[in-house]
Amino acid sequence: MKFSCSHLLLFISLSFFFLFPHCALAQSIKLSDKISFSVNNVTVSDALEDLTRVTGNAFSYNPDQLPATKLIRVNIHNQPLIEVLNAILGAPGFGYRQMGNQIIIYRNKEENTPQESESENTGKKPIENERNKPVPENVTANLKPDTIIREVHDTLKLTEYVIKRDTIYEKVVSPVAGNEIFSKTADLSKELTPVWKYTFGVTASYYIPFSAYSASSIYSEKIAQYKDSYSNSVFSGSAGGELLASYKKIAASIGIGVTSFSEKLNYSYLKESGGFFRKDTLDKYYTLSNSDTTWYYILDSAYVPKDNELFNYKLNNHVKYLEVPVSVHYRFPSGKMLFFIKAGLIAGINIGADGQQIKVEGEGILPVRNLNFKPFVLSYNVGTGAAIPINRKFILTTSFSWRNHLSSIYKDFPIDVRYGAFGINAALSYKLY
């Protein structure tokens, strides 16, 4: 099958189409939308912060009305957001109001405090200590006056007015506060949620390449010569960028980068010359025998000694590709990290080569630029690794991989040459959510 630039453009377009089907559908999660959420042994306040990062919604509430420091455990799969909130709060009587990407949590009915009950029984005005109460950290205080009117019908007193002032605290939790971006480490295991998330990063790989040669039986001697003469002691690697989209435990990535496969040529052969007698004619004469004329030649014979000339070549070969890797990942959590396995294809466009290649016929070498490279080759790629959170916005990913060409890198060349490589890979990614 022959590939062209139009095939590559179609391949990349289809990759983007299937990789990011939900980019245009991203929106705030509503109270009726179903999500999965899991926390273990965290406070109610921290659980609401984690829920903010999952849903993208900010939650406002009065901490005096919530058990904010209570430790809870929640494990809910595919349930409406309102059910998740009920499970976190763990008590009836709460109401929710959504305004854009903000959800306000409030009490449907205020319960009487012991102080209020005492005032009703004794008829005394309760003592107001709310103004002297310290304001919780990261909380905005709003003073709202409430007037409570109580009527007592008896013969001595008709009406009593009691005025009470309450201080209501409002806490607004943002998905990621600006001053927290570089201060705390995220827990990647809590981000395996049914919401599309995207990261972009820079990648670098160190390759240990291996060359594979094959041909018909008539070239068996030449293949043995290739295997003895080429080694992989020269640096090979790649660098580029990668965009990754994830949903629950599944992720897909597409990237672009430059890859160089290098190999060392150590080739020598012996050329023999001489080892024979060279005869030169010095003079000639003739004699008559009866009626015939007979010619005689005087010859000089010189021995040319045998000579061996050794040819030895030690140089490096480089083949470069502009590559577009596409892969699918399956992820599973361990602590705060995510381990994964991946598999995919790499589309490579040849962008240059330098060095020498051993001739197929006879002895000697020829420049690789004189060979006919395939302009487009495909490789398969498999690997495993781990994603480690650095802080709430950056992720370090390390992995091991194996890749190999699916066809020869040359066109119209009697020996099939393919590059495979064991890779040690690293990526530094930035969360786009």
Describe this structure in words.
The relative contact order is 0.13. The radius of gyration is 40 Å and the shape is rod-shaped. It has 433 residues and is mainly beta. It is built from five helices and 20 strands. Strand 12 (276-289) and strand 13 (292-304) form a beta hairpin. It is 13% helix and 55% strand. It has helices spanning 5-19, 44-55, 81-89, 114-122, 220-229; strands at 34-43, 58-61, 71-80, 94-99, 102-107, 140-151, 159-172, 197-214, 230-231, 236-247, 250-273, 276-289, 292-304, 307-334, 337-354, 356-358, 365-367, 376-389, 394-405, 416-431. Mean pLDDT is 76; it is low at 16-26 and 111-183. The strands form five sheets. The protein has an eight-stranded antiparallel barrel with strand order 8-10-11-14-15-18-19-20.
Order of helices and strands: HEHEEHEEHEEEHEEEEEEEEEEEE
Query: If helices are DSSP runs of H or I spanning 4 or more residues, what is the number of helices?
Result: 5
Helix content: 10-25%
Largest beta sheet: what is the strand line-up?
8-10-11-14-15-18-19-20
Please identify the structural class as seen in this structure: mainly beta
Shape: rod-shaped
Number of strands: 20
Largest sheet: 8 strands, antiparallel, barrel
Sequence stretches where pLDDT stays below 50 over 5 or more residues? 16-26, 111-183
Rg (C-alpha, Å): 40 Å
Mean pLDDT: 76
Span between N and C termini?
41 Å
Proportion of strand residues: over 45%
